[in-house]
Amino acid sequence: MQKYVMALTQFSEFMEEHQPEVVDEWWNLCEEDALLGPVGKLTREEFRNNIPGALDGFRKILVCQKEEVLDLIKTEVSKHGHHRWKQGFNLRELIRDWGHLNRALVQNTESFFQSLVPLQPEAHKEALDRLALFMTEATSGSVRRYDELRREESIALERDLKATEEQFDTITQARSRILREAAHDLQGSLSALTLHSRLFREVPDIPPTIEEILDQMDNGLESVSTMLRSLLDLTRLESGQETVSLSNVDIVETFHGLASEVEGVAIQKGIELIAEGPSELKVSTDPEKVRRIAQNLIVNALQHTAEGKVSLLWSQEGEQWKMIVEDSGPGLQAAKGSEIAKELKEKDIDSCSENKSTTFAYTGEGIGLAIVKRLCDLLHAGIHLDSHPGEGSTFTVVFPLDDVEEFPAPDS
């Protein structure tokens, strides 16, 4: 027993003498580890931090009752975890850091017992047991502190995000209110101008040039009025005023009704309008919002297609159903940074628009697409755009076939 204690005491003194070498070996092992990137940014003093204090605790474990020095070790390793967190280590890097220190300590232990005090297996085993105790307490204590800091950071981040979200909601509500008030005032002014135009037309013997000017003015007033209505739709969507009214419907009836409404525009422009798909498609959705999505896409396609065709297609695929609106128009400018790219994620856009000399952008594309995108979000639908210069555009909207788990069940 006396030999046993003497050997551990000698080992403790050996550790004190060779502590700088252990730290150097630990430093070298960490520097050679390609998965420990943050180490390269630290000076030697920053790297070693307070580990010498923790190693003092290990030396005391070798010669004292283990429980007497555990508090000292926990304090030092907690500081180490705090230091590594501040230096940008992730949890895996922190654990690898301790793993390399363990390797350096084991090498030092084996060197002592094999060369200086051989033939003492009991003391050798006890030294390794106490090293294992030290590393267990050191690693768990350091990781525990790191985890506490990470959780505190997450709570603070969540609090900041909530405050930012509340501030954003306040700004959005204020912006929506201002837009509604401004649109209301502008609609009044537009109505007055429309009335004056109508009265002007009642004047006898108006020259054809004046009638032409009045026609252009009426078209301009209608365009502005349409844009204002779109802005009001967008503000309602952004402010959360839109709700989903789910029902079980045959969506084909909605599509045929919409096709009948816009058919006159297609005939007037000499464009073929195709509405095609299964004769029946039973889905659980909000048909009015689906109609608005389709209407925005079809009207936009008709407006910008000079010749050819515009198609409204629908189909079912497993637990999903699709609505496709495609045209033979000039294509959409979906390059990075455009209004469309801002609304759709880059992965949802297929576009060959590298030729910057080709002009094929839709005017005012942002508002209509913003409305479509937000309506899709409300219905848990995905939207994808495929557009190529001179080859037209295809919008594909994928809806869940049955959303009863997401929305209240419809009345039977």
Structure keywords:
64% helix; disordered C terminus; 11 helices; 412 residues; Globin-like; 12% strand; two-stranded antiparallel sheet; alpha/beta; elongated; six-stranded mixed β-sheet; Heat Shock Protein 90; 3 domains
Query: Mind telling me which CATH architecture of the largest domain this is?
Result: Orthogonal Bundle
Pairing-aware structural class of the strands and helices?
alpha/beta
Task: Round the Cα radius of gyration to an integer and report it.
Answer: 36 Å
What string, H for helix and E for strand, traces the elements in order?
Answer: HHHHHHHEHEEHEEHEHEE
Helical proportion?
A: 55-70%
Spans of 5+ residues with little confidence (pLDDT < 50)? 334-339, 351-365, 404-412
